[in-house]
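SAMPLE LOG
Freezer: B-3
Tube label: C17
Construct: single chain, 511 aa
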Amino acid sequence: MRLPPACRAPLRALAGMVIAASCVSVSARETAVDLPPDVEAALQRAKLPASAMAVVVQEAGTRREVLAWNAVQPMNPASVFKLITTYSALDQLGPAWTWTTPVFLSGALSREGVLDGSIAIQGRGDPKLVVERLWLALRRLQQSGVREVRGDIVLDHAFFAPPTRLPAEFDNEPYKPQNVQPDALLLNLKSVSYSFVPDPAAGIARVAVEPALAGVLVDASVPLAGGPCDDWRTGLKAELADPLRVRFAGSYPAACGERSWPLAAADPQAYDARLVEQLWRDLGGRLGGAVRDGPVPSNARLAFELASPPLAEVVRDINKFSNNVMAEQLFLSLAAPSTAHAVIPPGPPLPAASAASWAAPSLPAPAIRPDDARSALRAWLTSRFGEAAAQATVIDNGSGLSRDARVSAQLLARLLQHAWASGVMPELVSSLPVTGTDGTLRRSTASVGRAHLKTGSLRDVAALGGYVLSDDGRRYVLVALVNHPQAAAARPALDALVQWVIRGAPRPPRE
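STRUCTURE (predicted):
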């Protein structure tokens, strides 16, 4: 039966509504509403509820959502928070950006190499001022003619406000390198590495220390022991309470071969001075005064500036190895005057003349506080993802070594999608650990080399965030957060999730 024209328009409208509803229904079915069976099974074996997990899986670039589970629930991401800190820095500053550490001289320098004054080193937050680079800086001073200092070597830490928490505050393990606190003049991550080299003929393991610290004595050897190489660190019975005398009261299993044990300095306040003094004297330098903390003298002149490795290299160290203190250095640096007005895309570094004038002692560096960095990072989040997303994110210290930080899996996925479309995508992706290959994913059971993922681990958090390459050649954004007192048991479930995405993140069939 042919309908009159007056009746055809309502029917066409009704048909359009039915088709639109059908399209919405199909689109909704493309997003899985349940966790993959292998993931659920792994959670059950670990006796973890599915409600403890939040997951977002999207196709990179298209933002087609494949899986969303507890996606908007704010959760503690542990070190996955470093994705926010490092991408924010790359996005604002560019991968070639560097820190500078000015070195000043005061007083007259004679032809014989005698400085009738002081050397001053002013920290500006460089996260990678390791012993090799500090040695090069001191050698540069000597090559410029300074052989003897009649005054002091002054270390200026004032660019960052002093830390308000103690190294033992987080987990009562002050000697763990992860608990080193940020410092404007962070020398060699304030850590010492002890190496144990078996000498079976002598029945001992020789102890090497790097770097040596002035005035600190370390046992030169420990007895060798038989048996397997199990908990060898406990067997050494290290006595670390006396910052001037490191002893090993136990023994070292010969079966361990050569091993290294990095530890945070027992006396972090004196570490920098002891390290600088030792290096200066090792280079043949003479010092009439002392190495001490203090401001750059008002009559000092700039000798040179020590430039850090580029930001991309620092970001790689932070993400590959989940280095907390380097992440916190970067976090605080986001609020520094030299970064506050960065242009996107960034221009070249400041020329030496401009940097020197900014570094003049007459313009003392402001004391950057964690609150300043939180405000700077929140402003960036707001500019990129909106005020609601920024306000829902709890920012603590930028490293994820926190009981208070919170972010949703959804926002982390948005950040990873934004990074995928950005000009610094290669630098961020290449900074992430690779499954079964390196960094914190070298022991992952997921397919080797198929995912670049930042990991996060605390006693009650297990997390992943990054990119996965599937068997059909698609790239996926994956974020998974687990918050539970037994979160460590969730690692097999996280590996199962990665493997599910590698297989192509299959969607439920359309009805």
